[in-house]
Amino acid sequence: MGAFLAGSAVLATLAALSAACAGAVPAVREAKAPVAPPAAASAGPSAGSSPTGRGGPLAGKVVVIDPGHNGGNAAHREEIDRLVDVITGRKPCNTIGTRTRSGYPEHAFTWDVAGRLKPLLEAMGAKVVLTRPDDKGVGPCITERAAIGNEARADAVVSIHGDGAAESGHGFHVIMPGLVAGHNDAIVRPSRRLGLAIRKAYRVGTRMPYATYAGRDGLQTRTDLGGLNLSKRPAVFIECGNMRNSRDAARMSKPAFRERIATSLAAGLRQYLR
Ligand SMILES: [Zn+2]
């Protein structure tokens, strides 16, 4: 940790100020300390979308994977702090996300999981579209992320996050869209089915407990998230664990566990889409 001592005070501040990463509160100022890379980062997903596979249980299906946040956000606060309309309020265009106490950032976690999930879905015949092409860029805004799912006519949209809650809380939860009348009426019910399928597969596949600090039985419904309010396609968020909790962070920092996360998400999507 020696090299990161300068950042530890900043990280402590981040811990104190951290908010749920899905964007209830604008993110705090980014630390300038070097960031410890994950033990064995995957190359991440390849950019863009894939051709629709022939055959397979998900043939003809389109899945949009939204890896939360982005690696360039912290250096472009003016762009990502800009407020955008999410129908029920105004939210920052995007946020920097959270990180573990040892410095593994959420944007890298979500990018890595997306990179593992994409080929699993493609192997089952799905067309996969990502909401960002790499982990070095800025944004896109939550409004644009929702638009990508809509334009792709996604059969399912999964937004991947790691939470930045109080360190005493642990476990995962799936966030489903609440009704925003006149806007997302058509997706509330299918999104709930998607959420239930993903909750079950994630629980079984990762053995992660339901969140102790949010939602109930691993499920939460919200009407303040742009990605859900603006989606015209079935969509859920998953907070894969609490990156501020030492036990969850240790698991989420391991490539083998991220592979289990991806496998579990693929199983949940398959169950929903079949
Ligand atoms: Zn997040």
Automatic annotation (TrEMBL):
Sample GO molecular function, one term: N-acetylmuramoyl-L-alanine amidase activity
Signal peptide start and end residues: 1-22
GO annotation terms (biological process): peptidoglycan catabolic process
Annotated MurNAc-LAA domain residues: 146-270
Keywords: Hydrolase, Signal
Ranges of Low complexity composition bias in the record: 38-52
SMART domains: Ami_3
Spans annotated as Disordered: 37-60
Alphabetical list of Gene3D superfamilies matching this protein: Zn-dependent exopeptidases (3.40.630.40)
Superkingdom to which the source organism belongs: Bacteria
GO cellular component, one term: outer membrane-bounded periplasmic space
PANTHER family in UniProt: N-ACETYLMURAMOYL-L-ALANINE AMIDASE, N-ACETYLMURAMOYL-L-ALANINE AMIDASE AMIC
Protein name per the record: N-acetylmuramoyl-L-alanine amidase
